[in-house]
C-alpha cells in the first residue's frame, strides 16, 4: 500500500517542493493551502492518487476540518509547513495580521500535530517547519521569530515524548530561502536578503528528506552557512550583542518620523 503524506502550505515555495518530492518517492500526497485553483492545478500535474484541501489555517473552523481529515486518513507523514511572517515594528502595524499569523504558525500546527500523534504508529513522522530565526531575535519581525521559537521548542519536546513509540518528530529550521515568503510577509524588493545566504526550496527539502531517512535529530538546520551563523549568534557573542546585531541588520526599519527624539 502506498504511503500517505499531508503537506500544509503546499501550493508554493518549500511546501510545493515537499509535495513534488514526496509524490516522486511514491507517497500519495494531500496538499493544503488557501488557493483552491492553484492546488487543483498542482494535483492534476502530480497525477492520480493525490488530492487537495482548500483551507485557511488561520481560521479555527478550517483547521478543524483539516484535522478531521488527518484523523480519518491516518497519514504516515505530516509536514506542518504553512506559515507567514508579518514585517514591521510590532506597535506600528495593526495587531490583527499578527494574531492571524500566530493562529496559523502555532495554533493550527498544534492542533494538527495533536490529531496526527494521537493516531500515529511506529515509523510515522511529523515535521514542523520553523526557521533559524527561532534561535535568534529579529527586530522588525519580532512576533514571527517568537512563533518559530515556539514551533522549535514544541517539536523538540514532542521528539523526546514520541521516540519510544518509534514516531519521529522534528523541527526543520530553514534559513533564508528563495520563495514568495518575503513578499507575502510585506517585504519590499529593496529589503530582499543577500543572495549569498539564500537557499532554494530544493536545497532545503534535500536536507529535510535526508533527515526523515536518518531520523537522528530533533532539529534540522539546512546548510553549513546557517549552522555557522547560528553557532556564532548563539554560542560566541552575548545575547544582547546578538539582538543589537540582528536589529542593525534588519531590513525593516522604522520610518524616521516614528522614531522618538
Ligand atoms: N522562505 C524563507 O526564507 C523561510 C525561512 C525560514 C522558514 N520559512 C518557513 O517555511 C514555511 C514555508 O514558507 P515559504 O517560504 O515556502 O513561503 P511561501 O512561498 O509564501 O509559501 C507559503 C505557503 O503557505 C500557504 N499559506 C499561507 N497562508 C496560509 C493560511 N492562512 N492557511 C493555509 N495555507 C497558507 C500558501 O498558500 P496560499 O497563499 O494559497 O494559502 C503557500 O502554499 C513557512 O512556515 C515559513 O515560515 C521560510
Task: Using brief descriptors, characterize the structure shown.
globular, single chain, 48% helix, binds NADP nicotinamide-adenine-dinucleotide phosphate, 261 residues, alpha/beta, 7-stranded parallel β-sheet
Describe the structure.
This protein has 261 residues and is α/β, with parallel strands linked by helices. It has a single domain (4-253), classed as Rossmann fold, CATH 3.40.50. Helix content is 48%, strand content 13%. The protein is built from 9 helices and 7 strands. It has a 7-stranded parallel sheet with strand order 3-2-1-4-5-6-7, sandwiched between helices. The termini are far apart. The model has no long low-confidence stretch (mean pLDDT 95). It binds NADP nicotinamide-adenine-dinucleotide phosphate. NADP nicotinamide-adenine-dinucleotide phosphate binds at residues 9-15, 33-35, 55-58, 81-84, 104, 129, 131, 174, 176-177, 179-181, 184.
What is the strand and helix layout of this fold?
Elements: E1 4-8, H1 13-24, E2 28-33, H2 36-46, E3 51-54, H3 60-73, E4 77-80, H4 95-119, E5 125-129, H5 142-162, E6 168-173, H6 181-184, H7 201-214, E7 219-221, H8 224-236, H9 239-249
Helix pairs in contact: 1-7, 3-4, 4-5
The protein binds NADP nicotinamide-adenine-dinucleotide phosphate (NAP).
Amino acid at each position: 500500500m502506498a504511503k500517505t503524506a499531508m503537506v500544509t502550505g503546499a501550493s508554493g515555495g518549500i511546501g510545493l517542493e515537499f509535495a513534488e518530492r514526496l509524490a516522486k518517492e511514491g507517497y500519495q500526497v494531500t496538499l493544503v493551502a488557501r488557493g483552491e485553483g492553484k492546488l487543483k492545478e498542482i494535483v492534476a500535474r502530480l497525477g492520480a492518487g493525490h488530492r487537495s484541501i482548500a483551507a485557511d489555517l488561520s481560521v479555527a473552523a478550517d483547521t478543524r476540518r483539516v484535522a478531521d481529515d488527518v484523523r480519518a486518513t491516518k497519514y504516515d507523514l505530516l509536514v506542518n509547513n504553512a506559515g507567514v511572517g508579518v514585517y514591521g515594528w510590532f506597535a506600528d502595524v495593526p495587531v490583527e495580521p499578527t494574531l492571524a499569523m500566530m493562529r496559523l504558525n502555532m495554533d493550527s500546527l498544534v492542533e494538527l500535530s495533536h490529531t496526527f500523534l494521537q493516531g500515529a504508529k511506529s515509523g510515522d513522522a511529523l515535521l514542523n517547519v520553523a526557521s533559524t530565526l527561532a534561535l535568534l531575535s529579529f527586530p522588525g519581525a519580532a512576533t514571527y521569530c517568537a512563533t518559530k521559537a515556539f514551533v522549535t521548542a514544541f517539536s523538540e519536546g514532542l521528539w523526546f515524548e514520541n521516540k519510544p513509540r518509534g514516531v519521529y518528530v522534528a523541527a526543520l529550521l530553514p534559513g533564508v530561502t528563495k520563495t514568495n515568503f518575503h513578499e507575502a510577509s510585506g517585504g519590499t524588493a529593496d529589503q530582499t536578503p543577500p543572495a549569498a545566504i539564500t537557499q532554494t526550496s530544493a536545497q532545503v527539502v534535500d536536507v529535510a528528506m535526508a533527515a526523515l531517512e536518518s531520523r537522528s535529530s530533533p532539529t534540522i538546520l539546512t546548510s553549513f552557512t546557517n549552522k555557522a551563523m547560528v553557532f556564532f549568534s548563539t554560542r560566541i557573542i552575548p545575547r544582547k550583542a546578538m539582538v543589537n546585531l540582528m536589529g542593525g541588520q534588519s531590513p525593516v526599519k522604522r520610518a524616521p518620523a516614528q522614531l522618538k527624539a
